[in-house]
Design goal:
Radius of gyration: 17 Å
Strand content: 15-25%
Shape: globular
Helix content: 40-55%
Structural class: alpha/beta
Order of helices and strands: EHEHEHEHEHEHEHEHH
Bound molecules: zinc ion
Number of strands: 8
Length: 265
């Protein structure tokens, strides 16, 4: 049984020096591919380098909504350069209105540009949405259906919205937050999502899952993905094998174009 970590950050300074070992452990745990998302211009090059060094690392390039203040005058050119130079997806991008003082207009402008690129270049997109669902739905309706599937990472929205996202070409990604024994909303969402529409992620090095034997460092890594799948499948009473197979096949569908592009190199 194989796994794909559909959203993680392997460039993160807390883990970057351990990547060869993290990659090894992922392999042993049957995590075949890891989709590593950049978060700002500063880590585009490192993310590209990781994807060159490791065949198992699939890169995404984007500006995370938390870091829209960091953009330079040439961010659009730089983003396009990396997207056109490497077989890659778009992200992490999105909207996060949790911090009431954030610049919402700038977040919307930056996110809309990412969505436009996803549609124009036909690339998968890795989307972060927190406390901004109405705005997100409004933008989705305005931009039209995605040609290539995208995903909403570590889904925190209501179960009721899922059919609408699915019909807009989106997949729903579940992280270690689904392993929290107190998580009710996210389990409800997992029950609602179609079998051919959910994927799994770690969001490494964050969202450390609730594991029977947690590591003291609490730094998450892709090798934890099968444990997340195990707990998630039991919470919706689906067999672990069946659950994992769906998640794997769905991720292959979402990231198909990056895998094909990597093969050609
Ligand atoms: Zn993330």
């Amino acid at each position: 049984m194989n796994f794909i970590d559909s959203h993680c950050h392997l460039h993160d300074s807390r883990i970057i020096s351990d990547i060869p070992w993290i990659e090894d452990r992922a392999k042993i745990a049957n995590v075949q591919y890891m989709v590593s998302c950049a978060t700002m211009e500063d880590n585009f090059e490192l993310t590209a380098q990781l994807s060159k060094d490791f065949p198992s690392i699939l890169p995404c390039f984007g500006i995370h909504p938390w870091f829209v203040d960091s953009i330079s005058d040439k961010w659009k050119e730089l983003l396009e350069y990396y997207l056109l130079t490497y077989p890659s997806g778009i992200g992490e991008t999105g909207l996060d209105f949790t911090d009431k003082t954030c610049d919402r207009d700038l977040q919307i402008k930056v996110f809309e540009h990412h969505l436009m690129l996803a549609i124009q270049l036909e690339r998968p997109i890795n989307i972060h949405i927190r406390n901004a669902w109405d705005t997100f739905i409004h933008i989705l309706k305005k931009m039209g259906k995605l040609k290539v599937p995208g995903l909403i990472h570590s889904y925190s929205g209501s179960a009721d919205m899922i059919p609408m996202f699915e019909s807009n070409g989106l997949y729903i990604s579940f992280s270690g937050s689904v392993t929290n024994p107190k998580a009710k909303k996210v389990v409800k969402a997992l029950k609602r999502v179609s079998k051919d529409r959910f994927v799994l992620e770690t969001d490494t090095p964050d969202i450390y899952p609730y594991l029977p034997e947690p590591k003291a460092s609490h730094l998450n890594e892709p090798e934890n993905l099968p444990a997340i799948a195990q707990i998630a499948s039991s919470r919706i009473s689906m067999a672990f094998e069946e659950f994992s197979k769906h998640a794997y096949n769905n991720s292959l569908t979402v990231f198909h174009s990056i895998l094909e592009g990597k093969k050609d190199r």
